[in-house]
Structures are given as structure tokens and as C-alpha cells.
Amino acid sequence: MIITHDLNEFLRERGHLDMIDVSFVPTMGALHEGHLALVKKAKKIAKHCIVSVFVNPLQFDQKEDFLRYPKLEKEDVHLLEQNQVDIVWFPKVEDIYPRGFDTRIEIGGPALQWEGALRKGHFSGVATVVYRLFSLVKPKFACFGEKDWQQIQVIHRMVKDLLLPVTLVNVPIVREKDGLAKSSRNRFLTSEERSRAPFLYKILQEAYLKLKSGGNISLILSNAIEALEKKEFKVDYFCAVDGNSLQKITKWNDNARLIAAVKLGSVRLLDNI
Ligand SMILES: Nc1ncnc2c1ncn2[C@@H]1O[C@H](COP(=O)(O)OP(=O)(O)OP(=O)(O)O)[C@@H](O)[C@H]1O
Ligand SMILES: CC(C)(CO)[C@@H](O)C(=O)[O-]
Ligand code: BAL
């Protein structure tokens, strides 16, 4: 496995794979089984797999969130080595945003609500970094996790609208045994919060089953929110939406998605079903 922090070295090594199928997994590091599911999928669909590890400053609206984002380079390299990745690239900030860089990608539609409304500039930061990474990596395939459902829809919109020559592949959510969606930020839960955290998925599942069997959407959602608040989750949103446009729906259907973001202590949990 090639491990590089140097853009020129990365491009040289990438050049050696140029004529061959390459899949790409962009990450922010502190890798766990969720990321590894993306890597495994990437390895299945293409001959070579490239992983990037870059904590993108542009997508953080809270400085403290950026500063405390876990950095575990040695452990990440070890996990990727075990999974036989071809290249792991740790870009430097100046490689992604060189002096004078002054472009932002702004996406409408699926980026406007939920995470987009609550985290100012977040999806513009995500889209801009993903576009830059795609330009440098030139992958045939790129894998993204369904844990960040809205992010996937935003990136699909960008790829479609800007005619990017990449095929996006979605990977289902990987969960802990108790149902909590794996996430790098889970490590910041206290042990008491960690034991309460799976309640979010439990409530999502219960609401989903009721919605699927034709129950009243607004009643089911308000009961779910009430149950979460009773357990002292601060609910940012818990909503039934169209799975692609992320617009609220009033009637459950086959393309619907239940999405949620809640705060538990200092951690924001994202999940969907
Ligand atoms: N539990 C999971 N199941 C499937 N995919 C996941 C999971 N966790 C993260 N991913 C995916 O891995 C990619 C990189 O995500 P990222 O590095 O931000 O990790 P993360 O665990 O989501 O961290 P955090 O949400 O705390 O920022 C994204 O496509 C994300 O959706
Ligand atoms: C796609 C991504 C790597 C862009 O920084 C990030 O948003 C993430 O880890 O989901
Ligand atoms: N995993 C999504 C990226 C973020 O929360 O910043």
C-alpha cells in the first residue's frame, strides 16, 4: 500500500493506475467498520482502491467541532493496510485549497433543508472538497455511506448537474450491535450517553414500521419526537422526506426516507431508515 502526504507523489502513483479501473473512498479519518464497508465495496467493483483522509475545514460551521475532530493516522493506515487499499492519500490543506483558491460549489434542491439549513456552508464545503478530490483522483467509482443520506443526495445532484464522469455507489449503514450507527464522533459520548444513544434507532424503527403500515405521518412523527425528548435527546429534526429531493412528504411511499438528527450531550447523532 502506498501512503502519501505529498500531492506530486500521489499524482505520480495515481498515474501508474491510470488506465485501470479505480474506485475512491473519501473520508475524514478516524476509521471504523462503516468506512471499511465502503472500502470493501470499492474493492469489489474496481481493480484498484484509493482512500483519502482529509478533515475538510470548509465543511465545518463550528470551530470547536473542527478542532476536536479525531485524528488517528497510524490506526487508519493500519486498518487500510489490512484491507489492501492501493493508495491512501492524506492531502495537505494547501493541496486542496491552494493560495488564491476562491471557488465554491453551491447546490440547491436536496442541500437546502435539514443539515443544509442547520450547518451554514456545510454542503457547499462538502461539494467543493468532493469536486476537488474527484478532479485529482479521477475515479471511475466513488463510494459514500448511507449514514449521511442527505450528503449522498447532494453529491448525486452535483455529479448529475456538472456531468462529472464518475459513478456513485451507496453503501448501507453499518451499526453497532445495539443499533447505533457507527460514527467517528461517537467516541465523544460519555458512557451514560453511549448507553442511551441506541434509543434513536429504536424510535426510527418503530416509526418506520408504523409509517409503512399506513399510519398518520404527523402523529407518528410527533410521538417519536416526544419519546426522544423525554429521554433528553435534543431533536434537531425527525422527519419523513422524499429520498432524493429531501422534501417533506405527507404520505409514506416506496421512495420515502425517515431522517433524524439529535443532540446527545456534546455529540450530534445522524441516522435514517
Ligand atoms: N456507519 C456508517 N455506515 C456506512 N457508511 C458510513 C458510516 N459512517 C460513516 N460512513 C461513511 O464514510 C464516509 C466518510 O465519513 P466520515 O469520515 O465523515 O465518517 P463518520 O463516521 O461519518 O464521521 P462523522 O459523522 O463523525 O463525521 C462517508 O461517506 C460516510 O457516509
Ligand atoms: C465526503 C467527505 C469525506 C467530504 O469531506 C465527508 O463529508 C464525509 O466524511 O462524509
Ligand atoms: N460524515 C459527514 C460529514 C460531517 O458530518 O461533517
From TrEMBL:
GO terms for biological process: pantothenate biosynthetic process. ATP binds at residues 28-35, 145-148, 174, 182-185. Its main location: cytoplasm. It catalyses: (R)-pantoate + beta-alanine + ATP = (R)-pantothenate + AMP + diphosphate + H(+). One of its GO terms (cellular component) is cytosol. Homodimer. The reaction proceeds by a bi uni uni bi ping pong mechanism. NCBIfam families: cyt_tran_rel (TIGR00125), panC (TIGR00018). This is Pantothenate synthetase. It comes from Commensalibacter melissae. The gene is panC.
